[in-house]
Amino acid sequence: MSNLEILSRPILQIARESRYRFPMDGKDPLQVSHDARQPSINAREYLIAAKANDTYIDRFLDERGIWTFKEGQNIDITGLTPQDAFEILQPFESPLLDLSMNSLLEGHKYPVEGSDEPVGLFNDHTYLNHIQTTWGMVEQFMQMAGVEDMQSYTDAAAAVACHDSFNFLGRSDHNLDAARGVRRMFPNLTGGDKGRMRNIQTAIFLHNEIVYRGTPFNLKDRPFDQKVELMKQIHTPMSAALLLADKAEIRRGRVIPQALRPQIVDAHEHTRGNLYTDFAGLQHVKGTLKMTLNHNPWVEQNNLLYAELLDGKVDDQFDQIYAPQSLKNPDGQISMEKVYREMWGLYGPHKARDADRLSLMIAAGFVLFPDTEAFQIDYEHKYDAQKVIQREFTLDNADEVLGEIALAA
Fold first, then answer.
1. Chain segment 266-316, per-residue pLDDT in tens
2. Distance between CA atoms of 195 and 193, rounded to whole angstroms?
3. Domain regions of the chain by residue span
4. To the nearest whole number, what is the mean pLDDT of the chain?
5. Which carries the bigger pLDDT value, residue 188 or residue 114?
6. DSSP H or E segment with residue 232
7. φ, ψ (nearest 5 deg) of residue 390
8. Confidence band, pLDDT 50/70/90 cuts, at residue 263
9. Is the dihedral of CA 120, 125, 127, 130 positive or negative?
10. Mean pLDDT computed over 128-154
């Protein structure tokens, strides 16, 4: 049975069983839910309250909140270059991603010292930031894996362009919303080729770690080698590349401006992770897949934006902004291990076998590069080559190493 045949049933099954917020009939309003404990809210009302762009809201939703977008009916990327496909989709996907940022910031608010109102915090998910960078990584990873078919790259560009655009309805099911949404928005995207369309939907659907934890995949608590074997059955090179890139796309440039204040930055774990960590490359040599990350604890002398975080004390020590409970030793191994945990969702020993961001990213590497014997992560200090944390994950030891990271204080 092919990957597509395996996936067709789970996608439909999940769509039927879950509360679905993107009605396909065009008769019911879309609903936003950022907290499963709270009732969902009419999407139009929510976006207006979140001060989203009125023109963008009107472009996609009518006055009742019903999806009415029809501008993409004739878009067909068959035979186009990947770059052309990425640019053609930008006018449609970029506004949705802007709406998503408004929605995410409204739905993820944190108390901040010295402020009477909570502040919305979320990493940048806009088209020319996260989406564009992720596409460059996906393209590179597919090239490294030996993918030769140009249409596969074009379809991958479309998958990347669309994978996060339905975050405006909520975070938990955004992959499912986007997987179905891409077909609703662009029914002729693949010129009627159902296999290619399902490949694109599959890549979008499989990029979110939540889908792996329950039905139908049930990866939570499985040993790492079993996770990899199951993922090999359901992934294509495109989907594995997107999962790997999406989880590795961490860098200071994703921190939104309003988070760049000393009293705010420590309130949000993913802001901290992106602030202090930059993805620096991936290599595949002789059975070892090596990812390099830079631990980035400094402010450049000429970077006034970051220098302001130090309240005028431009002495190159960026770590001064950290709250005492965050990093007890900002330049040492403890802090770098903590960023590992915070960035990829390892928050305790009970998570060592969870379907977390870090283990899924590593598993995607084994899937995309089948001859991989070890996935190595070098976490390097940006300005001190002597300060490196090296972790090596194999099919046999990954659970143990993940557990060590989870236990790091």
1. 667 777 778 778 899 999 999 999 999 887 665 444 444 444 444 444 333
2. 6
3. 1-205, 226-409
4. 82
5. 188
6. helix 224-234
7. -115, 125
8. low
9. positive
10. 97
Per-residue tokens: 111: 């108390």
* Nearest residue to 160 (alpha-carbon basis) of 227, 108, 206: 206
- What predicted TM-score, i.e. pTM, was given to this entire model? 0.88
Is the bond preceding residue 23 a cis peptide, omega within 30 degrees? Answer: no
DSSP state of 220: T
- Alpha-carbon gap, residue 408 to 108, rounded angstroms: 27
Joined together, the tokens standing for residue 389 give: 């944390």
C-alpha 209/C-alpha 212 separation (Å) is 6
- Give the H/E segment covering residue 390: strand 384-393
How would you write 264-293 as a 3-class SS string? HHCCCHHHHHHHHEEEEEEEEECCEEEEEE
Which amino acid would we find at residue 137?
M
Give the orientation angle of helix 174-185 with respect to helix 3-17, to 10 degrees: 110
The letter for the amino acid at 293 is L
Distance, in Å, from the CA atom of 255 to the CA atom of 241, rounded to the nearest integer, reads: 23
% of the chain residues with pLDDT over 90: 55
Residue 347: pLDDT band (50, 70, 90) is: low
Look-up of token digits 């969870």: 354
